[in-house]
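Why run this: before we spend reagent on co-expression, it is cheaper to look at a predicted model of the complex and decide which construct boundaries make sense. The entries below are exactly what would go into the expression plan.
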Amino acid sequence: MTALASIRDLTVTYRRDGNEVAALKTINLDIVAGERLAIIGESGSGKSTLALAIAGLMPRSSRIEGRVDWLLPSSPSSGAKAPLGGRDIGFVFQDPSASLDPVMTVGKQIAEVAYTHLGLTWPQAYAKAKSLLERVRLPDPDSALQAFPHQLSGGQKQRIAIAAAIAAGPKLLIADEATSALDTILQAEIVALIRRLVAEDGMTLLFISHDIALAAELAERIAVFRHGELLELGMTAQIVGAPTQAYTRTLLDAHIGLDAAPLLNRAGLDA
Amino acid sequence: MSLLTVSNLTKSYRCGSKTIAAVDDVSFHIDPGETLALAGPSGSGKSTIARLVLRLIEPDAGRIEFEGNDFLALSGAALRARRTRLQMVFQDPLAAFNPRATVARVLDDPLRIHGIAARAERPRRIAALLERVGLTADVAPRAIHEISGGQRQRVAIARAIATKPSLIVLDEAVSALDVSVRGQILELLLDLQRQERIAYVFISHDLGVVRAIAHRVVLLEGGQIAESGDARTVIDAPQSAIGKALVAAAPRLNRIRP
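The model came back. Tokens follow.
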């Protein structure tokens, strides 16, 4: 097991209204190269802060203690060299409308990543953008290259955000609630897309979600976060089948699946 | 007699030169104290139906009968009076409320505007409403943006029940909540329904929640009804293509559990 990233004693503190708020408390976690790791938690668990801290996207007003050691092909010896966002780490956020530039064509937004990080010429970068749109199964890639984000549906925009995230061939793909704003059918399609792309490109996946059932379908390992702490980490089957923490059990029990006992019966409302 | 009867409801939007039927000849009814779920993917028309039923927008064609009256024929004071019986809770209460208002102000508004309680009596009524939705009176002076998402949705429910409605439209009302909070809010809704015999139009794309809380379901696709019936019967064995796709796409833990 090679760790792509070793997180050691990571503590992140925000200043809010003059108070120090610890968003993450002494986190120790290895992200194994090539694995699909899910970070699960509710509001305020610190799961998004973890994603941002790993990607080096924390605001300057935050205080970060501890370290993240990387083992990247570009820095085989020491691991001291920090990864470059966009090149080594691809990031997909919840709301593609907010992460895509509204006044730049879809083609340019993807091509720009390839141009910047891969040293391609613009024509080469546009050709790469078109092949990426084909890979994310966007219908009619030629016209999509010329389109602006607002001309596309939510699911299509998320496919474009994913295409841009993987354009430079990152080692690590971070998806932060990337399907939470989509309906169930689109969610399943995007999860299947992420699974395929990660396998094809040999990427490591960090899948941040509030939905333990969704995460369990995609991830090999699950880390459960609560109030800024890592409560439990294990293989998916162990977390789902034999959790050691009561809170993990609570999350599992709160899942309302298609086989859940109807709440109506308990309320005695059945006609 | 049905509480709400919707007949042949149609609403189109023009998008450039194209006309898109957001709701296309939709009919359904709801009985008192019943939960009817409207489920379907994005763009299936479920939220447009909610807005039409609330008369936030007007239909191109069709009838809406509510509590025995032609709801579309009402206007002015008669419409305002009838609206007390038909309330709504949306996905994001932060967007639905004035963010600078306090909890007390949010609950005071309907009591004052609809003349439900005199000024002197309103603080007591507000405290009772908060208690009814599982909050304590000490949240009353707090600002809407200060309280948690779950508390905010409880305030939204308290506001909805302040006018003693017979029907509440819940548009993705639990979709943005943490899962542990979601269960509590669903229990609260069921408890209110049992106590007050309130009917719900429950709009959701999550068939797991629909199956758990609704009596009947209408599955929508492209503005039309694809399938409808008893919630568990439909979801356990969907007949329509969209029903099968929604069921297949739902995440499930028992694929992993031994």
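Confidence is low (pLDDT under 50) at residues 75-79, 266-271 of chain A. Strands of chain A lie at 3-16, 19-32, 36-40, 63-70, 89-92, 172-176, 204-209, 221-226, 229-235. Bring this page to Monday's planning discussion.
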